[in-house]
């Protein structure tokens, strides 16, 4: 087992009726609050009014930055940072899904930088610090509410870049499953695919010496497979939404990594798709993941597939490992494309092979993605082709 540091500093208020703690938590950082949110769903679900009431009751001063896009743009980050500098904001409050929280993280960091926030993403400059961030999550998917990462798009350069920094951890996150009752079937399905992918990117690993974490990951995957269909048919089922929400946070907050060291594979490939085609992150992952698994399956990796098939999909453990492996991929595809109803191919969502070469080159950084199976540009192009 490799050595590692465990450090997840986000305080979580989980469940209904926790918003009463918001004013107290924000007040720890000052009086001037910038609320960041997306295209208006928080207003239609009645959350906006509740949040504003809590902020006013606490005697805090409210500023707003709305219109954060899905696949958040660096232009929005710059807009937010300008407000922070001008209004001398003390604390940021992100209310929304991963896009809003991610944008808020870089607004916080860009407030301490005089140039274009894109310089932070491209590593032209380093993050020194960030404004403190509090989040209220409304969509279970990315885990941004409890991790130190964010991903930002630049529509001019057709890039989507992620970055992690300890300063970007939300200090506090409010996770009320009832705030996700209004998430539609498509976003619920995409969120589930994203959570699953975050786990699978770590689970499919060659250092197989963290049995305890493998068991945790299998439990998290089973949670997504059990509860997403319930959330789809009963959007206001508290038990289902609560289990998905907590699984979303723990899938990517660092806990399951333990000492495992291996690059992720599907995420770098998907970010290139989102960068060019502006597709929903979870949908891109759903299409890529079964093909990536198929591409990585061979005699050296089959034991992990066997473990996955037996422990996650309850396939007969007495069957041949290769047979279990293939069946597990079939069951995963059935879950993603039939149960969740997500589109199965790039062709169905209007993506052809014209950008495969450039996307593959960027995804592996012009070299090799050192993942479960190391992937060079040609490998990634092959996987993209399997998705057509
Ligand atoms: O913009 P609003 O009006 O808020 O509507 C959103 C948006 O249209 C809507 N929505 C959110 N909560 C809702 C709701 N609609 C009804 N009721 C609610 N309660 O859903 C749409 C999608 O929202 P978005 O925030 O874009 O979705 P998600 O949470 O999936 O975030 C995706 C972004 O996160 C990045 C992705 O790349 C993508 O840019 N990721 C961030 C990660 C991280 N920080 O660690 C890791 C992930 O792998 C991922 O890359
Ligand atoms: Zn993801």
UniProtKB/TrEMBL annotation:
<dbReference type="Pfam" id="PF00465">
    <property type="entry name" value="Fe-ADH"/>
</dbReference>
<dbReference type="GO" id="GO:0005829">
    <property type="term" value="C:cytosol"/>
</dbReference>
<dbReference type="GO" id="GO:1990362">
    <property type="term" value="F:butanol dehydrogenase (NAD+) activity"/>
</dbReference>
<dbReference type="GO" id="GO:0008106">
    <property type="term" value="F:alcohol dehydrogenase (NADP+) activity"/>
</dbReference>
<dbReference type="InterPro" id="IPR018211">
    <property type="entry name" value="ADH_Fe_CS"/>
</dbReference>
<feature type="domain" description="Alcohol dehydrogenase iron-type/glycerol dehydrogenase GldA">
    <location>
        <begin position="9"/>
        <end position="177"/>
    </location>
</feature>
<dbReference type="GO" id="GO:1990002">
    <property type="term" value="F:methylglyoxal reductase (NADPH) (acetol producing) activity"/>
</dbReference>
<feature type="domain" description="Fe-containing alcohol dehydrogenase-like C-terminal">
    <location>
        <begin position="188"/>
        <end position="385"/>
    </location>
</feature>
<dbReference type="InterPro" id="IPR056798">
    <property type="entry name" value="ADH_Fe_C"/>
</dbReference>
<dbReference type="GO" id="GO:0046872">
    <property type="term" value="F:metal ion binding"/>
</dbReference>
<dbReference type="InterPro" id="IPR001670">
    <property type="entry name" value="ADH_Fe/GldA"/>
</dbReference>
<dbReference type="InterPro" id="IPR044731">
    <property type="entry name" value="BDH-like"/>
</dbReference>
<keyword id="KW-0560">Oxidoreductase</keyword>
<protein>
    <submittedName>
        <fullName>Iron-containing alcohol dehydrogenase</fullName>
    </submittedName>
</protein>
<dbReference type="Pfam" id="PF25137">
    <property type="entry name" value="ADH_Fe_C"/>
</dbReference>
